[in-house]
Amino acid sequence: VFVISPDDASDFLAKTNPAEAASISPELIEQYCSPIERKSHNLEANSILVYPSRQSLLSPSSAAMALLSNSIPPTEIIPQNIPLDILYEDEYMIVLNKAAGMVVHPAAGNWDNTVVNALAHYLMNESPYGSGEYFTKDTENTQNSNEEVDGEELNDDDENMNDSVTNSISMLRPGIVHRLDKGTTGVLVVAKTRTALAKLSEAFANRRVKKQYIAVAIGHTGEDQWIDKPIGRHPLHRQRMRVVPDASPMKQIRLSATPKKQGRPAQSYVQTLHHDGKLSIVQVQIATGRTHQIRVHLQDHGTPIYGDDVYGFSDWNKALSSRRGITRPLLHAKRLEINHPITGEKLVFEAEPASDMKGVMNAILPLGEEV
What is the spatial distance between Cα 335 and Cα 226, in angstroms, rounded to a whole number? Predict the structure, then answer.
């Protein structure tokens, strides 16, 4: 789905016949249209919505291919030979140490080079335990509807829900139980069978999974503390989350006449492991799972994650980039405890932080100390 702004609407209509879909060429789409990637997109008065056919958009001669490649989901997962750091694998599940800069599954703007693309290649060609039920040439990809993001629940309300693409996108998450943000590294569990997927999803949903993270925060995070503040989507910046303000009549601030959704409960236990006067190394355990939970809670506390270009301090992030070449939040999923989905055996997975994060942590810690 594409939108044409009110400023361009008259020019667009002058060059097309709205009654004839064939008159809306890919070139006009490229010139006048912007893709809508979320159902919460705010439309200006007199905007025009365009629903072109996939055939017209993917015409080999289309000049709009560069735009569309990031806007229209593929119809299948393309296996890609991308290295994976495998912590554990059997017939039912696989556990990875996800690298920084890698998206977990195909989504708008990142339709390939994801963990799912890499798993498709590995499981079909290299795995000693078999490909499982999701990545076979004659098996249709399916996924669960109860995922988590950074150990946090992923609600379909927060995802791209345009009717024309929802089903296609959901097919691109085979076996995915939870997600880590693109810049976050660490332990990631993926199911290989439908039974394992159901069991693992149930464990995450019912909080039977223990998740521990390490982060580098700006400033002094202070004494160990339990943060219990609800999180919801930001009313103006829809790609961001925020701690939801007190909704009592005396404190509520109305940003618009439209009622806003209340935040969802979010609890994080933050322990300060070390502080050097400028930066803190913190260990965070999350009892709930919300989108960007750790990043938002630390921002609200006044000690955002170092390198976080969404919730952090831009001057600090620029310094991190120029001095160390790091352009991501220094957040790592260090440890995950969960029962095996089939045998019930207690499993504990740990992953070391990436070398870039280790370098920053070593500069904070006294000589010879380790986290």
Answer: 19
Whether the predicted pLDDT of 238 surpasses 90: no
- Position 59 scores a pLDDT of 53
**At residue 310, does pLDDT exceed 60?**
yes
The whole-angstrom separation of Cα 189 and Cα 196 is 11
> What pLDDT does residue 278 have?
96
- Cα of 52 vs its chain's centroid, Å: 28
What is the distance between the alpha carbons of residues 201 and 146, in angstroms, rounded to a whole number? 6
Q: In the structure encoding, which two tokens stand for residue 341, read together?
A: 């989905």
Q: Which of 150, 181, 308, 356 is catalytic?
A: 181
Residue showing tokens 């890609």: 80
Tell me if 337 sits within 8 A of 347, measured CB to CB. Answer: yes
Name the band, by pLDDT with cuts 50, 70 and 90, for residue 251: very low
Decide if 90 is catalytic.
no
* DSSP-assigned states of every residue in 174-199: TTB-EE--TT-EEEEEEESSHHHHHH
Determine the 3-state secondary structure of 309 from DSSP. coil
Please name the residue ranges forming H helices in the chain.
6-14, 26-32, 54-57, 65-68, 115-125, 163-170, 194-205, 293-300, 314-324, 355-364
Spatial CB neighbours of 368, under 8 Å, sequence gap ≥ 6? none
Kindly report, residue by residue over 53-68, the tens digit of the pLDDT: 555 555 544 444 445 5
CA distance 201 to 195: 10
Tell me which residue of 157, 180, 164 sits closest to 73, measured CA to CA. Answer: 164
